[in-house]
Amino acid sequence: MEALLHPTHATHRVARAPKLADFVNGVPRERELAISDFRQMDPTNGAPVSQPTTAYLSFDTRNLYVGWICKDDPAKVRARIAKRKDIESDDRVTINIDTFHDHKHAYWFDVNPYAIQFDGITTDGQGDDRSFETLWYTEAQFTADGYVVLQTIPFRSMRFPNAPKQVWGVMLGRFIYRNNEFSMWPFVSRSRFPQFVGQFADMEIAGDISPGRNLQFIPYGLFSNSRYLDRATGFKTGTEARGGLDARMVLKDAFTLDLALNPDFSQVESDEPQVTVNQRYEVFFPEKRPFFMEKASLFNTPEQLFFSRRIVDPQFGARLTGTVGRWSLGVLAADDRAPGKRVAAEDSRLGNHAVDGVFRVEREFGRQSHVGALVTSYNFGSNFNQVASLDTRIELGRNWTFLGQGSTSETRSRGGARLAGPGYYASLRTNGLHFQFVSTYTDRSPGFRAALGYIPRVDIREWTHTALYRWRPKKSFLVSFGPGVTELVNWNREGQVQDWLVRPSFAVEMRRATTLRILHTESFELFQKTGFRKNNTDLSLSTEWYRWLALSADYNWGKGINYYPGSGLRPFLAQSRNASLGLTIRPQPRLSFTESYIHSRLGATREWLPDAALATGAIFNNHILRSKVNYQFSRELSLRAIFDYNGVLPNCRLVPLDRSKRLGADVLLTYLLHPGTALYIGYSNVRENLAFDPLQSPALQRTAFPDTATGRQVFIKLSYLLRY
User: Fold this and answer.
1) Tens of pLDDT along 462-521?
2) Three-class SS string for 57-71?
3) pTM value?
4) Class level of CATH domain 459-634+650-657
5) Which of 115, 117, 459, 549 has its CA 20 to 30 A from that of 173?
6) Cβ of 610: how many Cβ atoms within 10 Å?
């Protein structure tokens, strides 16, 4: 039986699976589809790939095979033996597959010259979902004139319609990082963005293929021992042993049902450091727990009405996701033990669980348009919050897209108080080769709430415009350069201007992943019925000039607000200084060192303080330092250590902050055989400038040095994928 690829290409189903050595040694193979006409999307739109590249596609009853022969000087190739998915700054090859042929969603399978994998899902108009993981196989080898790669992708690792004939969209690509180069077949042009998947080549697979039976079970076990400081009662110790089972079933090749018994919601990686001092709104920390990360993009809407970190400590979880024709469905349900742990001891809800639910349905029409609905529900005792919304994405011509959303919410608190109100969102945007433009209107009523979402502010009517132009010279070290401008104005329901902003900018992008940007902001902010006139200038640089070195730096200065002033003071303007520096050194392919430093400073001046005696020196200085080292023994085994320092040095007369110093150490040994099968052994230790003495009042006192261990933990976690 043959598998035909149309309209102009054909290949046979092979009886013998190709081997990596075949491509290294030039061994004749069964007839394959050979692709060599790769064209650049970046840096020069439409130019031929700078290094000879050929991909060979073939099939058998179980797998799709892609063999690559990539010519290059091995001394110039940028690649590392890294953790799975940590190859974004490496040379690599990729195949993207639109299995449902909807011209919108596609799996991607990237691999670098050391056979390190990176998979995910991309969706036109939404971007990339890096959380997707599946089981596939890779081999790679350097040669005298480049490198070769073999990808083996089981059909059962993808979902596609249950039909006798398959028509898929396919894109093959190669990244050459030192040139900022991404070359593809078929030619994919930025001039047709936001269509990316919409530009793939159509391929018909005439053979009868099926993912077959697909049942996955991942039992896991977790053991931890900890000692920590309870700030009310003193030091405590605890031992936890937990086990559970995650199960996945693919139903009729279209739907995936995930069920979990005492599910694995643990997070083994630490959050990246951020400044949390003097922030008016909640700081956003991205999700890192595997259960919530996978297929998270299905629940995305223009307004983020579902933010999975709101579900803090769940005991069970269930999720159904799938696509049939032009319909997509997502349902998620979980409980949460955290609300029942946070209430007072005399509260009748102590120990109760919150019940959370999310429902999403989407219907596509046209080539890249859709309409969808989202419903979320949060219930804890007599408290509840329910949100319903309708949203749409409409393709308007070649480059223009409209996004719209209308939402409503109802909230009831324990005392019987009710809040309700609508929210609206509309955005018109274009993303072409040279010109990009976004105009967005956001309207949230004072009563709008989304307990499971990330909505930092209500009572707004905000209009934002961003436009930029990029010149893209050909055959130049410059990749692109040009100006941009952002404008914003925001009113409340009383017609008062709450914010306005004007931000011109200029950016230069060069080869070797080097970008320089400067911007200046003039703005106004209404805070606690007082208007503040602010400004800020920002300079940033990022570069990977050498393959062993990555550097990023940012410095900004201007006027900022002290949102939380000391006793007897109202919020006031101050001199703001912020700086960050990131440095990564890779002395050899297995080893990397990363240093990062963040400094945030607010300084008092006589101009804005009524008492000149207070207007001296800093309101606060916040220093955040992180050192990270990672050694990759093999593709599967790695050792990572992180050392953190976070110091807040305040003038307590001007800001109600403690003089705090925190030291942290975090060591993690990982053996990741493949997604679902992994062993983690971790140790963490946090020290702070605190002392606890129950004979004093208060019992918790600040000290000069961070020499008290306030949190220490060792854990072992094992999971194993069983696939049928």
Assistant:
1) 999 999 999 999 888 899 999 999 999 999 999 999 999 999 999 999 999 999 999 999
2) EEECCCEEEEEEEEE
3) 0.86
4) mainly beta
5) 549
6) 11
